[in-house]
Amino acid sequence: MRQAKKGKIAPISIFFMVFISRIIVSLTNVQSVTTGLMKTDILISILASMGLTLILSVPAIYCYKKHKNPFDVKWVGFFYSLYFIYLAGVNVSRFSYFASTTLNPDSQAWVFSVIVVICAFYGAYLGIEGLSRFSAFCFFLLTATIAVVIALSVKNYQEINFYPVIENDIQSIMKNIVFMTSSTMEIILFLCLSKKVNGNPIKPFVWSLIASFFTVFILILFVIAVMGDAASLQAFPLYTLFQLAKVSILQRLDVLYISFWIFGVFLKAAILIYCSSISFKPLKRKYKCMISSVMTFAVAVLLTEFVQINRISPIVFAVPFVIFCVIIPILTLIFKKRNYGDELVEKF
Prior knowledge:
Structural class: mainly alpha
């Protein structure tokens, strides 16, 4: 049994963090990362995306096994730091858009961005151990809530809504596979946090990807089965599913959805800001957390107030994904020298 070490987390924490980070993408923005109708073939896209994501994760996994981490190269780490800030801004902007259009239409999106970024800065400042403990809490809250909603949605399940099975054209199906895969920034999360794990993080990482895709598959399956053609008309279909899963006439479960979405987006933004701070070597970490938080807020405001995140072509997200999650790890495996220091630390 490995002893606990300061500044280190257990391998299971990687599972919690990656699972929550990946599933948050689909909770409120299914319509913004997919094309075509919300029909049965979207389930095929989810499974295909899971397989493609696991394949594209292989270079990052081998980087860990061969002790060739791209984050060890200073100038590469700097660009990864900027990419983490960009991803944090995207996630904050998505929540702000959801909150300002659905939860409280009278509020400005930037107000929600300020609140989330301040909380995320505090979480990142506390460090990886605090984020690890909170991720465990979020995981159990999330899984319990999903289990309850699925159980209460069974009575509204209608198999007829799955037909016809293929309704979108091949181009839309392929785009959905690409877009869902490119939303998986957890590959670089694994690369960045692998040194913080007191043990082998590969199995927890792989199983977290499988579990998150499978969970999204089950949720979307019930969205289609319960709402049928109406699912394509919903801006946030999973939120609608929670609204329809009533305990009684006066008791809806959308408050649970809102609760774990708030916890989830805070955790993901905090992890991304933390990763940004440790990717860039100069300055003390607290100053880097502060700078990263300010830049995250700037990106979030830009995307919500001026660009409108849901109107951006998914290609904008796909290209950076290929560069940072696939190409750079492959180049690292080919050209970077083996880090024997990490190998000695692992042995002793």
